[in-house]
């Protein structure tokens, strides 16, 4: 799942490439991606990109003051360059056609650039809205404060965490509480904070909340800086390479040497270090 550091880098690259370019054509391959049926992406043809922004895990392409294409990448969505855009990755870097996720929406621009919006899931999680204001998109309107933003404060964090009778990992991933964090970075944050992912936020001591706040801001800020300037076709592998515990089950913990373990969380699998995070307790794996 794309998270705020990667989506920020995606928005930056798309903005650098497409600002000032006119949308020449749109091919919506999968109609379920269009969430504003009365204003499909095709309605933007002829308009020019004036900038891009990120809202949590969503990307906003603005076409003037009152036209926005907001893209939710969902669980398996992403974007890639194709056609005559000049910097599209070589075929050997993209993998075989059989391995490549399908393009569900194709945006063509007047300089020959083609941006494909893809989805690698078994069900369609990619979504597109054409709106006057990004706040009209429900997922944007409900977003909590964003730890990647300079204005994010301890007060913002405390409002999201203090007193919550919910597992800490779930709080971190709740977009209405804290924007932009998913399964991978919540694992990394909790490892850095030396906290159990299944402990309740309401049970955290003041010292534990201090560690969690510092880890949340630190992990997300460092990842955002590290992903800055990485080409969008390399962002996934850069994210994977940066992980210390997420996706490392069976490997040695980089801090204590214990074996990193999987555990079941919601509808997915996450990772943790028993020695550093759960005082040796093994969490259930269904």
Automatic annotation (TrEMBL):
User: From which domain of life does this come?
Assistant: Bacteria
Molecular functions (GO terms): 8-oxo-7,8-dihydroguanine DNA N-glycosylase activity; damaged DNA binding; DNA-(apurinic or apyrimidinic site) endonuclease activity; lyase activity; zinc ion binding
This protein is called what? Formamidopyrimidine-DNA glycosylase
Which reaction equation describes what this protein catalyses? Hydrolysis of DNA containing ring-opened 7-methylguanine residues, releasing 2,6-diamino-4-hydroxy-5-(N-methyl)formamidopyrimidine
Its taxonomic path starts at:
Bacteria, Bacillati, Actinomycetota, Actinomycetes, Micrococcales
List the Gene3D superfamilies: 1.10.8.50, MutM-like, N-terminal (3.20.190.10)
Name the family the entry cites: Belongs to the FPG family.
Keywords in alphabetical order: DNA damage, DNA repair, DNA-binding, Glycosidase, Hydrolase, Lyase, Metal-binding, Multifunctional enzyme, Zinc, Zinc-finger
Recorded hits in InterPro entries, A to Z, give:
FPG_cat (IPR012319), FPG_N (IPR035937), H2TH_FPG (IPR015886), Ribosomal_uS13-like_H2TH (IPR010979), Znf_DNA_glyclase/AP_lyase (IPR000214)
The yes or no answer to whether the keyword Cytoplasm is present is no
Q: Which part of the chain is the FPG-type domain?
A: 244-278
| Any single biological process term in GO | base-excision repair
The protein's matches in PANTHER family, at most eight in alphabetical order, are given as: FORMAMIDOPYRIMIDINE-DNA GLYCOSYLASE (PTHR22993:SF9)
Formamidopyrimidine-DNA glycosylase catalytic domain location, by residue?
2-124
